[in-house]
Amino acid sequence: MSNKKFPFSKLFVLHCLMYCGCTTGTYYYNATLTTIASTMDGNVILAGMLASTYSLVAMFCRPVAGFMNEKFGRRRSNEWGLYGTILSILLMIIAKDLMVLFIARVLAGISFSVTSAANYAAASDLAPEDNKALGIGWFQNMATFASYIGPAVGVWGLNRYLATGSWSAFYIVTLLTAVYSLVLNFFIRYENKPEWKAKMAAAAEARKNKQAVLEDGPVLPPMKPFLGMTVPAWLLIISLALVAMAQQSVGSFLLLSGKERGITALGSYFLLQTIGMFICKGFIAPKIEKIGAMKVVSFAVAVAIVSYFVFSIATSVVPLLIIAPFYGCVWGTFPPVCNTLIVASVPQDRKGFASAMYLFGIDVGYGIGPTLWGIVIAAVGYAKVYFVALFLPIIAMVLFVIYWKGWGKAIFEATQTWKREKAAKLAASAEG
Q1: Angle at Cα 364 formed by Cα 363 and Cα 369, nearest 5°?
Q2: 3-state DSSP helix/strand/coil % of the chain, to nearest 5
Q3: Fold held by 224-432
Q4: DSSP letters of 76-101?
Q5: Mean pLDDT of the chain
Q6: Which DSSP letter does residue 222 get?
Q7: Domain locations in the chain?
């Protein structure tokens, strides 16, 4: 009989369920915003601006969200963000013109910046110490799961609107989702424990005095601080931004690119891509310690390069469907691995800010990517844009190698040494 324990605590599972509610609301509106705007005499360009506003506002608010994490705590920051989310939904309900809708989207972007930063920081806190990548991978799979729930509910809301001329039923569901997350958030109170407060206070005092952080964790190698983080952490964030930017060439333009080449029936492509993403986040990214970070990232970059080449030369849907689950592995491995390594590259009292900056890297890629690829497409066409996109993961790989050679390997070895020592102490205390 196997004695293998369930790897996650009850509090971590509760946090993941709460985060699924937070993320699902984001995908509700991604699927319906264009239609909602058009019912207010808006056009596609204005609807696109509304969508961009959400991401860009979130991007610029990330440093503030990181500060809130450190100053007020994860649970309290998430609570305030959820209040903002609920208020934005109420504004959507009463919106009769695009100006009110725009204000609602700005508020939603600010709220999303705060809640996502708080949730990622809490996930890093609550994930199992002996395998952070495992916890973060399954935590991120909540967003993968929500990426299918949200659009499905969005389509249901659209059908209700077409049948009744009202979005009321749709808004009620989105409001209930936010309230659901708010209620669960009240039960995530690990930050109130005396040992957590003492741990954070000791880390902050040590950093203030420029001493080594004496905490229950690995002894990190010397790293130069820069803009509230460390140099290696910023290298990882830039790498992530480049991969996210390249990903937007697919997320924003694959359908149009296929249409230009007579490739239709791409609905199954996104399903297969999501399946690949889900599997990799849950089963491959968590193996970073056994496989090795360099091997996992090299695999992701190699798959990305091959995928962009296929996107560029494909003349039918078949090669796209074949490459879809493999391309899903790129986004299913690179972000969770970067998240784990970024958080590991900063002291304990900066992990909340580091989680916010991890999301900042994704926001930069998602915010700049669509505009960049629109310009490239105008210059070289839909097919050749993917030849340009494949250079971004190559640059990201170069930056990752610099990180690994300079600091990453030492951080990894220090972490492994700490885990072995901790396991030995636990075994000794159990025998005693």
Answers
A1: 105
A2: 85, 0, 15
A3: Growth Hormone; Chain: A; (1.20.1250)
A4: HHHHHHHHHHHHHHHHHHH--SHHHH
A5: 82
A6: P
A7: 9-195, 224-432
58-84, pLDDT tens digit by residue? Answer: 888 888 888 888 888 899 999 999 999
Exposed/middle/buried for 58, CB within 10 Å: 0-12, 13-18, 19+? buried
In terms of Cα–Cα distance, which of 261, 244, 373, 369 is closest to 313?
Answer: 261
- Is residue 65 exposed (0-12), middle (13-18) or buried (19+ Cβ within 10 Å)? buried
Contact 415, 344 (CB under 8 A): yes
In which residue are the tokens 């590259």 written? Answer: 345
Which residues of the chain fall short of a pLDDT of 50?
1-2, 212-214
Three-state SS letters, 146-208 = HHHHHHHHHHHHHHHHHHHCCCHHHHHHHHHHHHHHHHHHCCCCHHHCHHHHHHHHHHHHHHH
Write down the CATH superfamily of domain 9-195.
MFS general substrate transporter like domains (1.20.1250.20)
Are residues 5 and 172 in contact, defined by beta-carbon separation less than 8 angstroms?
A: no
Task: With beta carbons less than 8 A apart as the criterion, state whether 130 and 4 touch.
Answer: no
Q: Are 236 and 338 in contact (CB under 8 A)?
A: yes
Number of Cβ within 10 Å of residue 194's Cβ equals 7
At 174, list the tokens.
């989105």
- The predicted model scores a pTM of 0.72
Which residues, 6+ apart, have CB-to-CB distance to 204 below 8 Å? 349
